[in-house]
Amino acid sequence: MDIDRVFRSFAKLARESMVPGAQLAILYEGRCQTAEFGVADRPGGPGITSDSKFPIGSVSKIFTATLAMALVSDGDLELDEPVVDYLPELGATMKGADLTLRHLLSHTGGLASDPDEARTTSRRLHISECWRKLDRLHRPGAAFSYSNLGYVLAGHLIEVVTGMTWWEAVEAVVCRPLGIAPHFVVAPAGAPRRGRPVVTGHSVNPRLRRVRPVGQSLAMVDAPAGAVAASAADLIELARLHTARERPNRLVSEPLLREMRTPVAGAEPFGMADGWGLGLAMYRGGSTTWLGHDGNGDGTACQLRISPDLGAAVALTTNGSTGFAMWQRLAGELAAAGLPVGDYGGVRGLTRTILPSRELLGRYVNGDTEYLVTMVDRGRMHLSVDGEPFAELTLHDGLVFAMRDFETGATNQTGRFLTDPRTGAPGWLQIGGRLARKRDRSRAVA
């Protein structure tokens, strides 16, 4: 295992990806090695250190899921009790009385991806408003559709059960026992915000060689879905809990940790990962399954991968929008060094192209997000998102499509059309793990 090879290439990959600053941490054989590159804000400004805190976006969901499972372990929450048992005020407007914490943590609740724009700083009022207008994508447990709203609701459950704010509970239940100094992208007055200022994200345009700082736009009510700021070393401390080989664990019982890393039936995160557990995505890497999550803040990209079989973990934090491209190259370096870290490759295995039928065309909806599929000629389709041109689609066997991003030209993403099992007609579009239901024909429910 040549881990030094990876660290030797780290700064070069960051420079070539135009990432202003980055951290890399690798846990292997009980030892954690770290490296830092670049600046936290602007050229000539403070440099990245080992404890610089990056907005980690959706990697925050592992913190929220771990916190929820710690409460399950203590008997304060039940995985399979209806949400309305804890939140009776939602009973009158709830479209899914069978929705459970298991559904929320595994993105199988049938909820839209993102909450409506918040008109209040009260998570309770915000959730009540979202539920009043809730339009389910499918019945709970029937399919996978990535949902930030589901994690906002999970955060509210945590607050109701603990009597603490989500921020206080993350610090007290997860961070403090793991030795992590908590920091957050957004937090109310008095919430724990220890450590250095949060690293600034950057919008990077490689074609124009342009790098611009951007502010974080996360709303307070959405914090449980993406508000944690952390270093790569912090993420390794969280990963130790899930490697099953590290320090004695008093946070989550071993049976529940195993359940977190067990694929959930019906959870098919096509376009994102190879499987999904409770808060943990699953990625194939050689003969090993890796756990983890990807996360994007405004102008940041972060990855965490964990292998319980190897007792290994890899964390990358970057403050550039091209950080994911850097990760893909870094994953190649890790594989060459003898550590084939899991990564999702949606375009793998795509071979024969087929001509699209006109019944695939039309309007697909996920909450307030609208996807429009149109035909430009007999063999090509275009996808628009909320009225903006997004990608060209090339259809393959199984109604899977490869995407060419109009802005970047990248061709490494895939999606698929799903048919209504009752009629055989196209009923959903799945892209980036998110389902959108076809709305220009009679409603189809999985």
Would you kindly provide a written description of the structure presented here, covering whatever features stand out?
With 446 residues, the chain is an alpha+beta fold. The protein has 2 domains: 344 residues, 3-Layer(aba) Sandwich (Beta-lactamase), CATH 3.40.710; 81 residues, Lipocalin. The protein is 24% helix and 26% strand. The protein has 10 helices and 20 strands. It has an 8-stranded antiparallel β-barrel with strand order 13-14-15-16-17-18-19-20. A hairpin with a 3-residue loop joins strand 16 and strand 17. The longest helix has 15 residues. It is globular. The C terminus is likely disordered.
Structural class: alpha+beta
Fourth CATH level, the homologous superfamily of the largest domain:
DD-peptidase/beta-lactamase superfamily
Give me the CATH architecture of the largest domain, please: 3-Layer(aba) Sandwich
- Under CATH at level 1, the class of the largest domain stands as Alpha Beta
Shape: globular
Low-confidence segments, given as residue ranges, are 441-446
Task: Tell me the series of helices and strands, N- to C-terminal.
Answer: HEEEHHHHHEEEHEHHEEEEEHEEEEEEEE
Q: What is the fold named in CATH at topology level of the largest domain?
A: Beta-lactamase
End-to-end separation in angstroms reads: 46 Å
